[in-house]
Amino acid sequence: MIIIRVDFSSEIGFGHLRRIETFVKLKKGKKLIICKECNQQYTHIPLIKIQSEEEFFDKVKTLKPKEVIIDSYNFTYKDEKRFKTLFPNIKLICFDDTYQQHFCDLIIHPSPFAKLNKYSQKAIKIDLVDKKFKDIKLKKFKKKAIFISFGATDAKGIGLKVLKTLKPLKKEVHFYTTTENKNLQKLKKFCFLNRWCHLHINEDIAKAMAKAKFGIITSSQIALEALKIKMPFIAIQIADNQRYIANGLKSKNIKVLSEREIKKIPRFIP
Q1: CATH 3.40.50.2000 placement within the chain
Q2: Which of 59, 104, 165, 187 gives a 20 to 30 Å CA spacing to 125?
Q3: In 3D, which of 1, 11, 72 has the Cα closest to residue 39?
Q4: What is the mean pLDDT of residues 149-171?
């Protein structure tokens, strides 16, 4: 059995879940997610909810997995050290994208921009872009319109702010989100009143990105997917943990804006 410690919700997003699901596809055997904040409807992997890390340790002791994978900022160096003390024979793998200190058997950095020499322990970087993005880029599509996505939840409501900056341009825009977006009703109203804006809810984004002439996205996992598909884009850094991908994008001469620079977006639209 493989136990996965990861959290996901409309508040914290689904990026960590997406990359974990891609990673464990490569592994055989039964998988189980143990989480504090989560919902079964968002994953095909069975899950158990817990209230604390203490309860997590109890579950590990009972279930006796051969491997545990951690992708949670709340599982600290102290927790990892305790884990290896209690379960020295269970392989502990930790995802990390902010160069934190770890006490585990293997660190996985999910970005091609990773600088592995920053780690004192064994670390590798893995391409965790889903295969569908690699396959879709081989197909030929007529490039048109602007693709916009700020994740499944867009908890900060950045998407609506971006749409408002594009209003004077009146260029065709396709905005992708999910039913977990708390600003969904506002987005529906905006796109109803502005017919150049097309709202897509709970739709697959791979084909949409492959067909887009240009994209406006976050400097997160979706930026790595855009690179794989070779969709031209600008990125907006909306969280501190996105700064490492943001720096990597800048090294490739891709424009990255901060939240306070959203009003500048129109000048970069081709």
Answers
A1: 132-268
A2: 59
A3: 11
A4: 91
CATH architecture group of domain 132-268: 3-Layer(aba) Sandwich (3.40)
What's the full length of the chain, in residues?
270
Strands 106-109 and 173-177: unpaired
Which residues, listed in sequence order, are joined to residue 215 by a DSSP beta bridge?
147, 233
Full-model pTM = 0.87
Task: Give the model's pLDDT for residue 248.
Answer: 95
| Whether pLDDT at 157 is above 90 | no
pLDDT digits (tens, 9 = 90+) for 1-51: 999 999 988 777 888 999 999 999 889 999 999 999 998 988 999 999 999
Higher pLDDT, 269 or 152: 269
Q: Which CATH class is domain 2-128?
A: alpha beta
Q: How is residue 52 written in tokens?
A: 């604390």
Write the DSSP string, the chain. -EEEEE--BTTTBSHHHHHHHHHHTT--S-EEEEESS--GGG-SS-EEE-SSHHHHHHHHHHH--SEEEEE-TTS-HHHHHHHHHH-TTSEEEEE-SS-----SSEEEE--TT--GGG-SS-EEE-----HHHHHHTTS----EEEEEE-TTT-TT-HHHHHHHHHTTT---EEEEE-TT-TTHHHHHHHHHH-TTEEEEES--SHHHHHHEEEEEEESSHHHHHHHHHT--EEEEE-SGGGHHHHHHHHHTT--EEEGGGGGGGGGG--
How high is the pLDDT of residue 11? 76
pLDDT reported for residue 138: 66
